[in-house]
Amino acid sequence: MAATPSASTGARRVLADVIARPSSRARAFALDAGLVIAGAAVVALLAQVEIPLWPVPITGQTLGVIVVGAALGAWRGAAALTAYMLVGLAGLPVFAGFTGTIAAVGKPSFGFVIGFIFSAFVAGWFAQRAWDRRPALAFVGFAAASVVPFLFGIPYMAFILNVVMGLDYSFTALLEVGLLPFIVGGLIKAGVAAAIIPGAWALVRKADASKKV
Q1: How far is residue 62's CA from residue 82's CA, in Å, rounded to a whole number?
Q2: What is the CATH number of domain 25-212?
């Protein structure tokens, strides 16, 4: 007997899979589409949350990316963040500060938005391997996912600032403005997500146990 995809990849169900799966493909597709839209909406809402810390305020955007990726799984999480990016570029005010415009591609920070897609995928990848069930493992996986946006954001920032705008930012200067101020905030948000997702799984297990009584 051929192995199922989940068996061959080691993937397990994520929180979104706790929802009863429709029997027909059409309804299953509709459910997945609804989850993707809901995930994009969650990120859009959390992008407007700001904690005024020095020297750089912390927004809830990355927290939303991690939570959505972990809750929906790798592919649905990536799809949700792709939808988030596209509706923002289409003009809906979903980016931080209630902004949204095609002109966002010319901003030095837009590379981070691209990186969010892959960050959600990584968070979902760890969740599909049950790293999201325990806070310690969840923190490691979510911290790794938090690194991903910088892999896209820093090079994109360098291109916009140095090539498009004709400025002269060194690699060290780029790290000083695009990475170092966000390390503490990123770890805090990974920790918050590592409390939220395992906590949600604990509620699921409690609900399942009560049904068996």
Answers
A1: 14
A2: 1.10.1760.20
